[in-house]
Amino acid sequence: MSKIIDGKAVAAAVLEECRQEVEQLKARGVTPGLAVVLVGEDPASQVYVGSKVRTCGELGIHSEKIVLPTETTQEDLLAVVERLNADPAIHGILVQSPPPPHIDEEAIVRAIDPAKDVDGFHPENVAKLALEDPSGFVPCTPAGCMRLLKEAGVETKGANAVVIGRSMIVGKPMALLLMAKGSDATVTVAHSRSKDLPGICRQADIVIAAVGRPEMVKADWVREGAVVIDVGINRVEDASRKSGFRLTGDVAYPEVAPKCAAITPVPGGVGPMTIAMLMKNTLISAGRS
Ligand SMILES: Nc1nc(=O)c2c([nH]1)NC[C@@H]1CN(c3ccc(C(=O)N[C@@H](CCC(=O)O)C(=O)O)cc3)C=[N+]21
Question: 171 and 108, same structural domain?
Fold first, then answer.
C-alpha cells in the first residue's frame, strides 16, 4: 500500500517555522525582504510569482514584485538586478525562469549578488553546494524534496536513488544533495537520452522524477515498495476543466501509486515545498545581514 506524502502539510509546517523566524528577525530590527522579478506574461509564471508574493505577505516578509514587459532589454533587466543588489531592504532576489528568449538567463543569474541569490542558481552557490559548504544557498525545489523525504521517514543512507533529469534547477542539485555526507545515497542521474531508462528506474529505492514530460514514469518502471518524488508540474489539456487544463506530474500516478511505499501527488506535493524553501532561504539571507 502506498502512503501519500502531503507536501501541502509539510510546507505549512515549514512556513510555521518561518513565521517564528520572521518574528525573531523583526525583534532584532531586521524585516526580511524578497524581490521577485517576472519578465513577460507566461501564465504559469504569473501563478507562481503570485503565490510567492502572497506567501511573503502571510509571513510578514516584505516583498517587491517587479513585472516587466516581454520586450524588456537585457540591459534594463540587468539594471533592475543591480538596483536590487544595492537595496538593503532586499535580502533575496529571484528572476523567474524562463525569461523571454532574447534574454541571456545565465548572464542575469551571474549578475545577482550571490549573497542574495535565494534560488541558489549563481555559480558561487552551485560550487558551494558541490563543496558541501553550508554558507551557500541550496536550490528550493531539491531542498524541498529532501525535506519531504525526511518528513516521510525515508532512509536515504545507502539507498539507491535514481534522479531522472539533469537540469541545473532540479536534477543536478538533487543528485548532489542525495549523495552528500549525512544523506549518503548511491545516486544515478538518468535523463531522456539514457539507455534503458525503465531498467535503471527499477533499481531505485528512491525515484526523483524531474524530466518535465507528463506521466512518463510508468508502473513497470517502479520497483514494488519504492519511494517516488514527482517534481513535474505539467499543464495538460483537459476540456472538462473550466481552465481548459489540469496539472499532472512526470509520473503516471494512478498506476504507479499502488506499487509505492510512498509517493508525492501533483499538485500538493513538491510545488508547495518549493515556495516554503524559498521563504526559508530568504530568512537565512536576512539573518546574515
Ligand atoms: N527563478 C525561479 N525560481 C523558481 O523557483 C521557479 C522558477 N524560476 N520558474 C518556475 C519554477 C516552478 N516553480 C513552482 C513553484 C511552486 C509551484 C506550486 O506551488 N505548485 C502547486 C500548484 C500551483 C498551480 O495551481 O499551478 C502544487 O504543485 O501544488 C509550482 C512550481 C518555481 N519555479
Answer: no
Specify whether 144 is located in the same domain as 229: yes
Is 28 annotated to bind a ligand? Reply is: no
* Domain with 144 in it: 140-271
Cell 516587466 found at: 68
CA 200 to ligand 1 center in whole angstroms = 28
* ipTM value > 0.90: yes
Q: Is residue 265 within 8 Å of 229, Cβ to Cβ?
A: no
> What is residue 281's predicted lDDT score, i.e. its pLDDT?
98
Regions of the chain with pLDDT less than 50? none
* pLDDT tens sequence across 206-254: 999 999 999 999 999 999 999 999 999 999 999 999 999 999 999 999 9
Say how far apart CA 10 and CA 167 lie, in whole Å.
25
| Residue 192: per-residue pLDDT | 86
User: pTM, whole model, 2 decimals?
Assistant: 0.97
Does residue 119 carry a catalytic annotation?
yes
Residue 166 among known ligand-binding residues: yes
CA 190 to mean position of chain CA atoms = 19
The Å distance, Cα 231 to ligand 1 centre, comes to 10
| Residues 6 or more apart whose Cβ sits within 8 Å of residue 1 | 258
Q: Angle of helix 43-59 relative to helix 270-288, nearest 10 degrees?
A: 50
| Protein residue closest via CA to atom 9 of ligand 1 | 97
For this structure, is 52 an active site residue?
A: yes
CATH number for the domain including 84? 3.40.50.10860
Residue 285 domain-assigned? no
- pLDDT given for residue 15 in this prediction: 98
Do 155 and 245 reside in the same domain of the chain? Answer: yes
